[in-house]
Amino acid sequence: MRKTKEQDFVERRKDAMSAKLALLERFKNRPDENDPEVQARIAERKAIAEAREQRQKEKEARRQAKLAEEARLKAEREAAIESERRAREEEERREAARRQAEELARRADRLADDAARKAARDARYAARKARVRKIG
Description:
- It holds the Pfam family DUF6481.
- By secondary structure, the protein is mainly α.
- The chain is about 95% helix and about 0% strand.
- The longest helix has about 100 residues, at about 35-135.
- The chain is rod-shaped.
- The model has no long low-confidence stretch (mean pLDDT about 90).
């Protein structure tokens, strides 16, 4: 039984060594940078990278345009809300001025009525005094 384990270990060691050698051989046999296939792969990768960069720029431009549109719409909404608020405040000021004018008119009417009543009372008093003096 011990012999099988040793053989397994030796086989594993041999397999690992052959894998390392194959990897080294593959590294040594790789094509040169001036090889047309390598140049084609480099150009393809470069084209893919440029296309990706262009798509990212377009995406960013669309995002910026969307943000600008949202900002414009928000500004329009805020302007509309502000103009409605100003109109409402102006209407409230007009209404308050109208109520104040009505109140002043009522007070003026009341004062005029009070003055008319006082004048009528004074006239009655004067007439009574005149009658009393004629009699006496």
